[in-house]
Specification:
single chain, 198 residues, alpha/beta, Rossmann fold, seven-stranded mixed beta sheet, 5 helices, 7 strands, 34% helix, globular
Length: 198
């Protein structure tokens, strides 16, 4: 259960990130995947993470303190939206620096738009996490926009794709909707179960 959530700091460089030893749970995905909306739904605060109709609005690493005991980290999207090349490279460097340096990182939630079949950019990012042995989970967003059959088909596409690429096991997967609240409890309980074992 999330009892409290507050914004702490935005960082344009990994070395500026908080020095606390709190466990960190990062959220990342392509631009316009619904990341800010999901974060706000999880924390019951519609104004916590800034939502925007403009993809790629997040260009900094945003730390939110949850229950005064762990961090929820809002990372820039790896879709980069309509940024100039220099801006895209800076964000790419920031993201990779975060994964290289943040020893507090416990799990990364990779957000994927459930309406689409496997996209190369998502698969490449997931493979990067796997190669570097970063623990991660997959959160399918906007699930309310699909029929039951579309859900099953699209999720099975991802599972098959990962197995075909040589993954020995499928990472934890969650179906979510910021609109209906579906998946919220499962994601929060998953984080709580990890925290209880730290």
């Amino acid at each position: 259960m999330i009892h409290s959530a507050r914004f702490l700091v935005s960082s344009s460089d990994v070395d500026q990130c908080p020095k606390y030893s709190f466990a960190e749970y990062a959220f990342i995905g392509r631009s316009n995947v619904g990341k800010s909306s999901l974060i706000n739904a999880l924390t019951n605060n519609k104004k916590l993470a800034k939502t925007s109709g403009t993809p790629g609005k997040t260009k900094l690493i945003n730390h939110f303190v949850i229950n005064e005991s762990w961090f929820l980290v809002d990372l820039p999207g790896y879709g980069y939206a309509k940024l100039p090349k220099q801006g895209r490279n800076e964000i790419k460097k920031l993201i990779h620096g975060y994964f290289e340096k943040r020893k507090q990182l416990i799990n990364t939630f990779v957000l994927i738009d459930s309406r689409h079949k496997p996209q190369k950019i998502d698969i490449n990012f997931i493979n990067m996490l796997g190669v570097n042995q970063h623990a991660f989970s997959i959160v399918f967003t906007k699930i309310d926009k699909l029929s039951e059959k579309q859900r099953r088909d699209n999720l099975s596409h991802y599972q098959s794709h990962l197995l075909e690429q040589g993954w020995e096991s499928i990472p934890p997967m969650f179906e979510s909707s910021a609109k209906t609240g579906e998946g919220k409890e499962e994601i929060i309980n998953y984080i709580a179960s990890i925290n209880s074992n730290l």
